[in-house]
């Protein structure tokens, strides 16, 4: 098994945490995002979306971090509490995964990650969108009343949500207005130090880039505007 991943990418970090939690042996292949290795014709043979990560399980290629984590649980540990078979429990996990992808990570990435790597700026509106997303997550935690995002047990939904939340920690986002999110996040760190080690490795890279953004001025990205060097 091989995982094509980027070392500081939240979706990649979520999959790596799932692999670790499931105790699955695999080869980690770093994709150089800055060199646009994921935009090559060869990479597109594995994933026409040309996005990261991609799992290669003995020739079976699968993209999208949510699908990868679900597949790993279904194939290699179908009885795991990470992704239980009970329809209601699984539905709640799936909802949290969708929430993360569409409602939580999207504004977080736009506010935290995009301005580091490309010619975007953090604005009061981008911050407002992040605060709204975190506030909704706070509400979910309050209403469900469980230790983790979808259950008393950690699930793959937590891996996705943790990997998104660390982007905010990396830019010193103020979590003081969200005590349940803060508690959930700190509990994960305390109870799963080996998994947090994976997440933290990516966060430390984001922190470094936050203070010293990479020079990508020579990159010809098809979708994102590159930051031009100052005269």
Automatic annotation (TrEMBL):
One of its GO terms (biological process) is glutathione metabolic process. Coiled coil: none annotated. Residues 86-223 form the GST C-terminal domain. It holds the Pfam family GST_N. InterPro entries: Glutathione-S-Trfase_C-like, Glutathione-S-Trfase_C_sf, Glutathione_S-Trfase, Glutathione_S-Trfase_N, GST_C, Thioredoxin-like_sf. GO terms for molecular function: glutathione transferase activity. It comes from the Eukaryota. Residues 1-80 form the GST N-terminal domain. PANTHER family: GLUTATHIONE S TRANSFERASE D10, ISOFORM A-RELATED, GST-CONTAINING FLYWCH ZINC-FINGER PROTEIN. Belongs to the GST superfamily. This is Glutathione S-transferase 1 isoform X2.
